[in-house]
Amino acid sequence: MCLFTDSALPTSSTFTMGAFHPLNLFLFTLCLVAIAANAHNITAILEGFPDYSVYNSFLSQTKLADEINTRETITCLVLNNGAMSALTAKHPLSVVKNILSFHVLLDYYDPQKLHQISKGTTLTTTLYQTTGNAPGNLGFVNITDLQGGKVGFGSAIPGSKLDSSYIKSVKQIPYNISILEISAPIIAPGILTAPAPSTSDVNITGLLEKAGCKTFATLLISSGVLKTYESALDKGLTIFAPSDEAFKAAGLPDLSKLTNADQVSLLEYHASPDYKPKGTLKTTKDPVNTLATNGAGKFDLIVTTSGDSVTLHTGVGSSRVAEAVYDSPPFVIFTVDNVLLPSELFGKSPSPAPAPEPVSSPSPTPSVSPSPSPVSEAPSPLAASPPAPPTDAPSGSPADAPAGSSENSTSDNAAGHVSAPLFRTVVFTIFVAVVSSVLLS
Ligand SMILES: *[C@@H]1O[C@H](CO)[C@@H](O)[C@H](O)[C@H]1NC(C)=O
Ligand SMILES: *[C@@H]1O[C@H](CO)[C@@H](O)[C@H](O)[C@H]1NC(C)=O
Ligand SMILES: *[C@@H]1O[C@H](CO)[C@@H](O)[C@H](O)[C@H]1NC(C)=O
Ligand SMILES: *[C@@H]1O[C@H](CO)[C@@H](O)[C@H](O)[C@H]1NC(C)=O
Ligand SMILES: *[C@@H]1O[C@H](CO)[C@@H](O)[C@H](O)[C@H]1NC(C)=O
User: Fold this and answer.
1) 310: pLDDT confidence band, cut at 50, 70 and 90?
2) What is the pLDDT of residue 376?
3) Given pLDDT bands bounded at 50, 70 and 90, which one contains residue 11?
């Protein structure tokens, strides 16, 4: 379990921003991850029921299994192999994902509760509602206790038929997860017609520009790394795209000083080969490899989770992962608040959060020079990027909210800042831990 040794526990005198040891924050975050570890594994549960093997296989392919495992109070409405095969034969994976996420109820319904619905009918929210693709109550399911002990399921859109019905209980772990078989897919208007471009039609730079990541898109084109991304699309790709604000952050090293090869590595570092939607990132325990990974443990990312928030650690700094701006399996784009700086290029620190080093030299020089000076003979793609305004922090950027004092920061890059709310949460939680350990001893 999670044990903070006495030496790892900061004493009250260290409860200041400057003296707070970032390693403790990291260890603590790891503990949060361990505490939040899944109570159930839907894939393993369903392995015991061959009638639902097709359903189980699609939960894995769409990575919905990971999302389900991060939830505590949930009901899965499963379809048998015949019903699933009929469904998946007709639709691409992205549509199948929408349909299946519509069959995951964010509440616990066991057979008993199904028959005790007050007034005999209710609307319940689904995982599909959480995707942000469901306007109004499109992401809700209507459960109605019909006469003769029959329970019907349908879309919550008024006038929808209840043409799916409860068949039997498959498995219950009260009150964490319930698995019930239903007779037919529940279809809501719009779910089947959801746009599902094939990966060859996807315009990566167009999507990035729309998401406020124009600088990143421009760099992908000028460096040629876009081609690498495109060729990885079919097999699955997850992009962590820094926002335009991230490239203007005070304290960001001068990226145009990198060699061309290093610039390519930096851009390749911002994508991972495989489809990893948010639920998958949340359940990831091993380091995540990237397109720049060229050996075990090289150019990878450590993922930590706290509640619904996912953070990437590079070994030099960290960055929050925002909601996906595009998610259609096998391709997902997230925006990130900071440029991800791999330790292979920007530092030698082995731990994801670098320990504060005695700073003998003055504070790190502002990284962005007012005029981009050509440093290498060859024109470098990053030098062509629009120069960011010298040292002024971007206003209104939440990532830099904690008065990004590079003077007082122990970290020398934009990605190193700990966000104020997270910091407060961690300090508070450690405070609680200290108080309870005192009370218990
Ligand atoms: C249900 O989930 C909670 C929280 O994750 C966990 O502590 C508990 O052990 C789970 N119950 C069962 C029966 O697995
Ligand atoms: C869940 O179970 C499957 C099948 O037994 C296994 O392959 C997978 O690693 C498990 N996932 C987790 C997070 O333990
Ligand atoms: C569920 O659907 C039935 C049939 O369309 C309808 O009569 C009932 O009012 C609906 N329930 C809710 C809570 O909207
Ligand atoms: C992709 O989108 C960008 C920006 O909207 C546009 O300039 C470009 O022509 C598009 N590329 C293709 C191949 O459609
Ligand atoms: C840096 O720390 C010193 C002493 O703790 C404080 O007086 C000063 O205001 C801080 N500067 C910034 C920019 O936060």
Assistant:
1) very high
2) 39
3) very low
Residue 245: pLDDT over 60: yes
Residue with the smallest CA separation from ligand 5 atom 12 is 405
Classify each residue of 94-121 as buried b or exposed e, where b means 16 or more C-beta atoms within 10 Å of its C-beta. Answer: bbbbbbbbbbbbbbbbbeeebeeeeeee
Atom of ligand 1 nearest to the CA of 174: 13
pTM reported for the whole predicted model = 0.69
Asked whether 391 lines ligand 5 (CB < 6 A), one says no
- pLDDT at residue number 382: 63
DSSP structural state of residue 126 = B
User: Which residue among 41, 52, 282, 283 has the greatest number of ligand 2 atoms within 8 angstroms of its CB, and so is best to mutate?
Assistant: 41
Domain boundaries, position 238: 199-346
- Give the nearest ligand 5 atom to 403 CA: 14
CA of 71 to the centre of ligand 1 (A): 11
Residues 95 and 114 in one domain: yes
Q: Average pLDDT, stretch 68-90?
A: 95
Query: Is residue 311's pLDDT more than 70?
Result: yes
Nearest CA to ligand 3 atom 8: 121
pLDDT at residue 425, as a whole number: 56
CB of 197 shorter than 6 A to ligand 4: no
Q: Which ligand is located closest to the Cα atom of residue 176?
A: 1
Bond before 109 cis per omega within 30 degrees: no
Nearest ligand 2 atom to the CA of 66 is 13
Final residue before a domain boundary, out of 346, 370, 386: 346
Ligand 3 geometric centre to CA of 137 (Å) = 13
Q: 121 C-alpha vs ligand 3 centroid, how far in Å?
A: 6
pLDDT-derived band at 135, boundaries 50, 70, 90: confident
Give 389-397 contacts, CB < 8 A, sequence gap 24+.
Answer: 389/248, 390/366, 391/250, 391/366, 392/250, 393/249, 393/250, 394/245, 394/248, 394/249, 397/245, 397/249, 397/337
Give per-residue pLDDT as tens, 280-298.
999 999 999 999 998 888 9
H runs (alpha helix) in 36-108? 42-47, 53-61, 64-70, 81-90, 93-101
- Nearest ligand to the C-alpha of residue 200? 4
Nearest ligand (C-alpha, residue 154): 3
CATH number for the domain spanning 169: value is 2.30.180.10
Q: Is the dihedral of CA 311, 317, 322, 324 positive or negative?
A: negative
Q: Are residues 140 and 230 in the same domain?
A: no
pLDDT tens for residues 147-184?
888 999 999 999 899 999 999 999 999 999 999 999 99
